[in-house]
Amino acid sequence: MSVCGAARCCWIQSRSAVRRILQQNRTVCSHTNGSAESIRKKLQAFSGGSIDLQKQQDSGIAVLTVNNPARMNAFSGSMMLELEQRVCELETWTEGKAVIVQGAAGTFCSGSDLNAVRAIANPHDGMKMCEFMQNTLTRLLRLPLISVALVEGRALGGGAELTTACDFRLMMSDGVIQFVHKYMGLVPGWGGAARLVRIVGSQTALKLLSGAKKVDPDFGKQIGLVDEVLHCSSSEENALAHAEQWLTQFIKGPAPVIQAVKKVVVSGRELPLGEALQTERSVFGTVWGGPANLEALALKPKHNRERVPPRQRVNVALTGPWELPAAHTVMAAGRRDKLRDLPPVEQSSSERSGSPSPGDTLPWNLPKHQRVKRSKSASGDVLDPAERAVIRIAGLLSYLLIRSRTRSFFSPADG
């Protein structure tokens, strides 16, 4: 009874602890939602520019454009809100495979608009804006789509942080990434520092942030921040076409499979091993037995085609295995399935003339019920049974003669 009482007490305590945690989570969520609503109202007051989204249903690639050329594509307050809406649209795009983030008019992004920064200069509102953009860019990074930042021109401050919220970064020959927060007396606040450390490592990230170093295409590829450099003309359409062509190698296949791959990679990157393995099992269950899986199993690749017995692959008109050395080598190696890759064999003389040739009567070219065990002489002629018997008797006599002489040679001499 004491054990049962102790177990019941532990169960009650654990249940109360779970209730307290749930209540704390509800409080935090309600507080976060309230903070987000208050900062949304303030950001909405600073209009200008737009975040454009184009979805290509045939290729499954979306293009997200930061469009505010008058201010080097800096984020106004309304653009921050639009970015959240566009990310929300991409989260529910079931036919999508990838998204390309670019800037308009040959410039990627120069961070946040100074007018909005000055208006929310107090620390409390600044932290709310920082939290809002952190959540938005984190959702962008966790999209079930492969994301690519196409850096054309300058990516400064918040624009540099935006590049780290993508899976890959492509740069034009004139592109530059620079974390200039130090010159403004700030540090990255949109999550760029934490993501940069995971991309290039802590030491390189420290050099880029503390030195505000300019990252050109060559240096970016050297430190691992840039995945590919696109050498093409500076026109926006040409750069986008090259980016789509580069991205094609990763998005071949059905959209559900590409999204499942991105989900397991995100879970493996951000979750502990146990939780990542559980997520991987769950995602595997969503694609196993699905249309894409069944379609792949229904197809028969060349390396899985039905094997044909070797006797049906090799022409039976062969007069012997020596006429096809490659076949003999393959058979000796135990790789009979490779015989299907050998070149075709010419017709035998019997097939051309209609009369049987000597080779057609060899044992391996006859049906089983017609095969007779026969031997050959040194010259290659077929022996009769009587000749075989004479040869066997001669061999036996030779053996006995040699044996008797050997015994006499090794026997001790008579005294």
What fraction of the residues are assigned to beta strands by DSSP? 5-15%
The helix count comes to 16
Distance between the termini: 106 Å
Number of distinct beta strands = 9
Structural class: alpha/beta
Low-confidence stretches: 6-32, 310-336, 345-352
**Largest β sheet strand count, sense and barrel closure:** 6 strands, mixed
- Give the strand order, joined by hyphens, for the main sheet: 1-2-3-4-6-9
Mean pLDDT: 79
The 3D shape can be described as elongated
Write down the secondary-structure element order: HEEHEHHEEHEEHHEHEHHHHHHHH
Gyration radius (Cα, Å) is 39 Å
User: Helicity level, as a percent range?
Assistant: 40-55%
Protein name: Ethylmalonyl-CoA decarboxylase
Family: Belongs to the enoyl-CoA hydratase/isomerase family.
EC number: 4.1.1.94
Subcellular location: Cytoplasm, Cytosol
Write a brief structural summary:
The protein has 16 helices and 9 strands. It has 415 residues and is of the alpha/beta class. Its EC number is 4.1.1.94.
What does this structure look like?
The protein is of the alpha/beta class. It has 16 helices and 9 strands. Strands 1-2-3-4-6-9 form a 6-stranded mixed beta sheet, sandwiched between helices. It has a 3-stranded mixed beta sheet with strand order 5-7-8. It is elongated, with a radius of gyration of 39 Å. 25% of the residues are buried.
Keywords:
three-stranded mixed β-sheet, 9 strands, about 425 residues, alpha/beta, elongated
Indicate the topology.
Elements lengths: L1 H43 L5 E7 L4 E7 L9 H15 L6 E6 L10 H6 L3 H19 L4 E6 L2 E3 L1 H7 L3 E5 L3 E3 L13 H9 L1 H10 L2 E2 L1 H7 L4 E3 L5 H12 L7 H16 L2 H15 L3 H8 L11 H4 L11 H8 L16 H5 L31 H26 L5
Parallel strand pairs: 2-3, 3-4, 4-6, 5-7, 6-9
Antiparallel strand pairs: 1-2, 7-8
Helix pairs in contact: 1-2, 1-4, 2-4, 5-6, 6-7, 10-11
Enzyme class: lyase
Protein name: Ethylmalonyl-CoA decarboxylase
Subcellular location: Cytoplasm, Cytosol
